[in-house]
Design a protein that fits this description.
Helix content: 25-40%
Distance between the termini: 66 Å
Oligomer: single chain
CATH architecture: Roll
Shape: globular
Strand content: 25-35%
Number of strands: 4
Number of helices: 6
Order of helices and strands: HHHHHEEEEH
């Protein structure tokens, strides 16, 4: 009986110490990421990504010459909601952009998944937009399968 009580105390104590995300910090994090990419501060934007995506994000920007060729013309945060567990959140943003040599502006509505880590909201994935390396793996696989020349 004493052992069962001890286990329950440990469980409740553990639940009480789980870090919870600050809902007030979500929208500023979303806005800061979009402002930084809009003004081509890709290293600054990478600071807002989860650690394992930072390197691939910077490498992709260099490979695609995004400091020269990517133009984010507008973004508008439409919605941002923190999950009930307070550890993840989704932000919906309308973003307009083009990448040279194309001059056709693309406007998409993207959902960005943020996670609470190290007492900050960090971007984990985006389902649309100019950053392919931020798309979730399942979405990338589906997009590749939909491309007629994907296997060539």
């Amino acid at each position: 009986m004493k052992r069962a009580v001890a286990v329950l105390i440990v469980c409740f104590a553990g639940c009480a110490t789980v870090p919870k995300g600050d809902p007030e910090m979500l929208k500023p994090s979303v806005e800061t990421f979009h402002q930084r990419v809009r003004w081509k501060d890709f290293r600054g934007a990478a600071e807002l990504l989860i650690e394992e995506k930072r390197g691939p994000f910077i490498k992709a920007r260099l490979k695609l010459n995004d400091d020269r060729d990517l133009f984010i013309t507008n973004f508008e945060i439409e919605d941002a909601k923190v999950a009930l567990d307070m550890l993840s959140a989704d932000a919906v943003t309308k973003i307009s952009w083009y990448r040279l040599p194309s001059t056709t502006e693309i406007t998409t509505v993207t959902t960005s998944r943020f996670v609470w880590r190290n007492e900050t909201w960090q971007l984990e994935a985006q389902d649309e937009g100019p950053f392919e390396e931020l798309k979730p793996a399942l979405m990338k696989a589906a997009a590749a399968a939909a491309q007629p020349d994907a296997g060539k």
